[in-house]
Design a protein that fits this description.
The chain is α/β, with parallel strands linked by helices. Helices cover 40% and strands 20% of the residues. The longest helix is centred in the first third of the chain and has 23 residues. It binds zinc ion.
């Protein structure tokens, strides 16, 4: 076993032991139904059965298909779990949501292969205010599940207006979206999986996808945990095997 792999395994085992001890005093709860669960479980068996049973895909404004684990109107408990993670700091939920994301990506592509997994970026100001980028948490979980390295390939300048404060028309014409690529060499010739937490208008994902392609990526596949695609008339729901 390679030293770095050994170190990673040791750290994960140590984390698992610590989580077991802490769980006596602060038990983990299923992100979806809130029942108490025991490590290393990341959700209860009932929710696991229901939540990993299908995925779907949506068409982004840039013309690329985005794979999604959950749909806003159908998977209400998944929506709550994601919003708890994003706005109430329930980072633990990223584990289960990341697994669902990996399930959706694996079901969409018969042979999942990519050089790198990345995520939609957050500006430094926003990152400072929230403390974490939820898209990165989910992308890192996907990276662990698929054994494909994660890297932050995109940046977002401070001062860009926040997407969910804008109307759909404003989003289409949003001149404040200023994504950039800090190191183009990391993108050139690479097959990339781009991850976001929620895709609504698809403008953020499209902007990042287009930028990666124009910077010389070999391919960009898009994946998100949740879509709220009333804009999207071509939603396709597929039942996983
Ligand atoms: Zn549950």
């Amino acid at each position: 076993m390679k030293p770095e792999k050994w170190l990673m395994n040791t750290l994960m085992n140590t984390e698992s032991v610590i989580r077991r001890i802490l769980s006596v005093f602060f038990p983990d709860r299923c992100p979806y139904c809130k029942t108490i669960i025991t490590p290393p479980d990341t959700e209860c068996s009932e929710c696991r059965k229901n939540l990993y049973s299908y995925h779907h895909s949506v068409l982004l404004p840039c013309g690329v298909i985005c794979t999604a684990a959950f749909y806003y109107d159908i998977n209400n408990s998944a929506r709550r779990a994601l919003l708890d993670m994003k706005f109430r700091g329930a980072k633990f939920n990223a584990r289960s949501l990341g697994k669902a994301l990996a399930n959706a990506v694996s079901a969409q592509f018969s042979d999942v292969s990519a050089d790198v997994i990345t995520c939609t970026p957050m500006s430094r100001d926003r990152l400072k205010a929230r403390g974490f980028n939820q898209a990165e948490l989910l992308a890192r979980e996907l990276s662990n599940e698929l054994d494909i390295p994660f890297d932050n390939l995109l940046g977002r300048k401070n001062g860009a207006r926040i997407q969910h404060d804008l109307s759909y028309e404003e989003r289409l014409n949003n001149k404040d979206l200023r994504f950039y690529i800090p190191d183009q060499h990391k993108v050139e010739g690479k097959s990339i999986i781009l991850v976001d937490d929620i895709v609504t208008s698809g403008m953020t994902m499209s902007g990042c996808c287009t930028l990666l392609n124009s910077a010389g990526a070999e391919s960009v596949n898009c994946a998100c945990v949740l879509t709220a695609g009333s804009y999207n008339k071509t939603i396709e729901i597929k039942h996983s095997e």
